[in-house]
Amino acid sequence: MNSDASKQFPLETDEHTIRAELDRVLGLRRFSGAPQMSAFLRYIVTETLNGHADRIKAFSVGVDALGKPDTFDAQTDPSVRVLALRLRKTLAEVYEDLQGCIAIIDLRVGTYVPSFYRVATSTDIKDADDAVSGLLAPNAKEPCVSARVAAMSPSSSPVAQESAYKPLPPAASTHADNTSLGAK
């Protein structure tokens, strides 16, 4: 899973789902043996869910999450930036396989404020399939992935705008007599 989840998944807004995913991730071996990285992740997710995303800065992460003294200087001490890099890499590894995850916690470069994305469930795929079923050629069995993603994505998202299905003009008949092509 790369950090480009915003182009692949719709936003997750359900706080309970996000907290459950946070608990799931923190229970993984990668995090259970990394208390500072766990504290960092818990802090940024909790602050964001509590409506305090604007307060998440290197200083607040250092002092509030990592237990640095009030004299901590984020400009001269790179520990928060280094830990953020480790956290991003670890989250990318965690989300390489989406099996078992119920949401995606994404931490983009340049910010300490996470984004949350919904993972497609079988219900989402069924709903997307229903939404695009009229777009299938008569012999097609499965809608294409981009049509599913477009159907599951909010219409204002770049995914929906870029990959939305645009029907082609009606094709010429493929009958053996080729009458629709003007052949006689």
Features:
2 domains; 8 helices; mainly alpha
Q: Specify the helix fraction band.
A: 40-55%
Spatial ordering of strands, largest sheet: 1-2
Unreliable runs, pLDDT <50, ≥5 residues? 134-138, 140-184
Question: What best-fitting shape do the alpha-carbon axes yield?
Answer: globular
- Indicate the mean pLDDT: 76
Terminus-to-terminus distance? 55 Å
Assembly type: single chain
Q: Give Rg in angstroms.
A: 23 Å
What does this structure look like?
There is one protein chain. The chain has 184 residues and is mainly alpha-helical. It has two domains: 5-118, no CATH class; 122-163, no CATH class. Helices cover 43% and strands 4% of the residues. It has helices at residues 15-26, 29-32, 35-49, 58-65, 79-94, 122-132, 145-152, 158-163; strands spanning 103-106, 115-118. It has a two-stranded antiparallel sheet with strand order 1-2. Strand 1 (103-106) and strand 2 form a beta hairpin. Helix 3 (35-49) packs across helix 4 (58-65). The longest helix has 16 residues, at 79-94. It is globular and about 45 Å long. The N and C termini lie far apart (55 Å). Residues 134-138 and 140-184 have low confidence and may be disordered.
Give a summary of the structure in a few sentences.
This protein is mostly helical and 184 residues long. The protein contains eight helices and two strands; from the N terminus they run αααααββααα.
